[in-house]
Design goal:
The complex is a heterodimer of chains A (about 200) and B (about 190). With about 200 residues, chain A is mostly helical. Chain A is built from 8 helices and no strands. Chain A is elongated, with a radius of gyration of 47 Å. Classes of the chains: A mainly alpha (about 200), B mainly alpha (about 190).
Chain lengths: ~200, ~190
Amino acid sequence: MKNQHKHNLLDWEIELRQEVQQYEFDFDPDAWNEMEQLLGKLNPVNTSTQATVTISTTKLIGIISIGFLLNWLILGLVVYQYKGEEHNPMEQSLPIPMEQKKDRVNMPIGQKEPLIPIIESHHEVPIQMFTNQVIDKMDTSTLLEQPIIEKRPTPAPFSLLNTRNIPLLKTLERPPDTSMMKIKLQKRKRNRKALFPDVIEH
Amino acid sequence: MHYGFHNTDKELRIACIAGNRRAQQVLYQKYFGQFKGIPMRYMKNKEEATSLLNQAFLNIFNSLPNYKEEGSFIGWMSTIVFRTTMDKIRSNKRYNERFILQTPRENARPVSNNAESKLNTEHIYHQIQQLPDHLRVVFNLYVIEGYKHEEVAQEIDIKLSTSKWRLAKAREILQKALQKHYPNEKSA
């Protein structure tokens, strides 16, 4: 704005000029509302601190939840391992032989029944061989009367598969007489002269 | 910090640069009345003037980091408001319309007897706003801003003779409109 000359102005123009320049308009709140919208479009309100707080809270919640989840998994695994050693649900579901039932009746109160029967005389023998020997010596007629007991091995937790000592399996070695025989398969030659020999033979 | 009218312009300026909305509001409110007159003289109505003033304040807020503390802060801001107004005028075709001789507009507010005695500055503003756009710009630049005809012609890209002619027409119309306000004046 120049505003420095007084060239060829009439008196009323000079008066008008002074009046106009010295006048101050009243503040209009609506104008500020409009201005705020303009500022909001261009520069949103400084919410950097709010955003930081929100982000950090979200991160904190995420970390806590991940930690809780991991803790829960580890605890669950440990509890499962201990339960797996003490309690085998498969044993309960299987029928109990009559002799064992009698033993249980005669067992003093407070004594715990061993989870896995200890076979002292056969602890050096592989399971399969022991079972076969027992079956050979047994009177097979009695087997029909007794319910079949199926002993299934307790599933070991995956983390202890290589570290846990499984009873009766520590000396699991193949005896010399149980070497597997190799079956030699002869190569079959096709008689080209015969039509569909297999079909004709069978 | 809670900003208010007790804060200096420098404090407000620094806070505005930091994006403090309250400081922006205080600065806006502080100078609204002074700067409102600039677009009011050039625009046709109050709404257009307010919208243009807001645009000017937006330019001020954006240019605050570039302000070097040389000269007065108010002068620097009023220059931005004026330049914004000029930019608007140049971008508007109607300011370069061919002049058609007009009598005072039919929709011009009639001056009542009561208002006659109470003519105030806002009425003068109103009468200036009633001028045709191309005349109003020349009148304001020459009479209010103090431009010479050469500068007026350069500012709004018109011929020198056109500037003189438009000023003469604006004077004629406005003097008639404000005759009762300035009764002792003779036409130039």
